[in-house]
Amino acid sequence: MRTSLLFIFIILPNLIWAQAKVDTIEVFSAAMNKTLKAAVTKPAGYETSSEKYPVIYLLHGGSGAFDDWHKKVTEPGLVNRMAEEYNLIIVTPGVGPSSYYYDSPLMDSVQYETYIIKELIPEIDKNYKTLAKRESRAISGLSMGGHGAMMLSAKHPELFIAAGSMSGVMNIDTRLWNVPDGFRESRNSQQKAMLGDDLVYDAPFNTFTAVGFVDKMKTNGVALTIDVGVDDFLIATNRQIHELLLKNETDHEYTERPGAHSWPYWTNSLPYHLLFFSKHLKWE
After folding, report:
1. Three-state SS at 191
2. Chain centroid to CA 229: how far?
3. Which of 24, 35, 83, 235 has its CA 20 to 30 A from that of 91?
4. CATH 3.40.50.1820 fits 2-278, yes or no
């Protein structure tokens, strides 16, 4: 694995979180025969400390990139501050557009579940001082990344103690999205290319969508937090999974706050997710 320094925030020396450092790494995916980037944020003191750290995987949205969480938040240095305040590592991986973090049965180039679970996480644990166990690992994300976090944690509860979604695509059925017809048609076309023409969207839900895993969420012991803005075009899918989790009596936190599908909302949301995760992660 090749690593290079991405950027170091030392603008405000009186704030200790400014000492957090971010690496840009490249990870080769044998499953897709391509190399993908990720940013790894380390708390101050990491280089000289002998301790190991919990890890948060923070996923981007459908048209995003690995460095979105560093470049697009409305509070500069937010990810660095979170890594510093909670003394942990935050990994922001990059994946293909509109790929939803699943393995496509039709496209070898869309195998992002395998990439995250079997390639990226082992690479991070191999090359960084992590507490490489379920109790010290959590995952969250925005929009498509929220879908990925909920789906991956439901399918692989042996890897994650907690998971979260911010404005997540909790159901890939675009009939529930409040979007223009052109946008819906584009996403439907992309889904058909990745999943086929015969995918069933109605209940019982398919296993390529987060709502298809509510029964697993009930039994796997992963702590869940879900939030969405009241003006978000995906609010119907979030209310749907909330209602399904209530119906099957799955413990979870669900919050609707002012805001839309936007970086100001996600900037506000991230500290809530870190606070939630801090109640479940172990630092030893």
Report:
1. helix
2. 17
3. 235
4. yes
